[in-house]
Specification:
By secondary structure, this protein is α+β, with helices and mostly antiparallel strands. The chain is built from 10 helices and 11 strands. Strands 4-10-9-8-5-6-7-11 form an 8-stranded mixed sheet, sandwiched between helices. Strands 1-3-2 form a 3-stranded antiparallel sheet. Strand 5, helix 7 (156-163) and strand 6 form a beta-alpha-beta unit. The model has no long low-confidence stretch (mean pLDDT 87).
């Protein structure tokens, strides 16, 4: 029964609508009291649900001394649902083309001053960064330091990007948990990431193709730990940030050099 209810809800019925329809299928000409008892919902809810099922063409009202209801044969019901879904599919396909053209026109008329985006939730930040990773054409440079808005040990879009030939260079700030830190940098190095390590980085930073810069800012507040990111698509600014990245890259050590230090020594 639970499986049938789950399947019916996937077609747009509510949980109690599915229960009432299944109750009607079991017996013909049912009064509201018996439907309510079989579906295990109160009488007021039953009247509301029956009205909706009648409107959806899934049952009919039978008039008499006592008002009763009867289910429409499932074959006819689901043929109607299939027909409605086919219509919705056609509408969706047409809208995708029409609205896609509207969106394209919007892209073609970008305000030259709309080059800064402010991103305020972890999910929005993550989606935006992953989209930039997937669309990178040559190189991504990163200042990688805690705390993290995303899972620092899982980055499938980066792995796929490296496989497609995009260069990934990351400078990691040394973390307190040396074992986890070593595990992380070794994992990404084995995936093809070029890595350097530094005692302290100024901020969390990503540079995409010398065109777009994402800076993530961290703040402790009464609401807890909050991240805000700024995404800036401006070539001169990106070039300046890339120059800073190169200075830090030159003055950071390799993974192999780090492993020979006291902090990075294998225990």
């Amino acid at each position: 029964m639970k499986t049938l209810i789950d399947e019916l809800t996937k077609l747009g019925l509510s949980d109690i609508e599915a229960k009432v329809y299944l109750a009607l299928l079991k017996k013909r000409n049912l009064p509201v009291k018996e439907i309510s008892s079989t579906a295990r919902i109160n009488r007021t809810q039953t009247y509301d649900v029956l009205a909706k099922l009648v409107e959806k063409g899934m049952c009919v009202e039978i008039f008499g001394n006592v008002k009763k209801y009867e289910a429409i044969h499932p074959e006819k019901v689901f043929q109607n649902i299939k027909s409605q879904l086919d219509k919705q599919k056609t509408i969706a396909e047409n809208l995708a083309v029409t609205l896609g053209n509207v969106f394209k026109n919007n892209e073609d008329n970008v305000n030259p001053y709309d080059f800064i985006k402010v991103l305020r939730t972890n999910k929005v930040i993550m989606d935006h960064v992953f989209n930039l990773v997937q669309n990178a054409e040559a190189e991504i440079c990163v200042f990688n330091k805690p705390p993290f808005a995303m899972n620092p040990y899982v980055n499938e879009p980066e792995v796929q990007s490296i496989k497609q030939g995009i260069t990934h260079r990351s400078i990691y700030e040394i973390e307190e948990d040396s074992d986890l830190f070593l595990k992380k940098i070794k994992h990404f190095q084995s995936s093809g990431e070029l890595i350097r390590i530094n005692n302290k980085l100024p901020l969390k930073l990503l540079i995409f193709d010398n065109k777009t810069v994402v800076m993530t800012l961290y703040n402790e507040s009464e609401q807890g730990s909050l991240f805000t990111a700024m995404s800036i698509e401006q070539k001169d600014f990106a070039t300046s940030m890339k120059d800073i990245f190169e200075i830090y890259w030159k003055n950071s050590i390799t993974v192999e050099e780090f492993l020979n230090t006291e902090e990075g020594g294998i225990k």
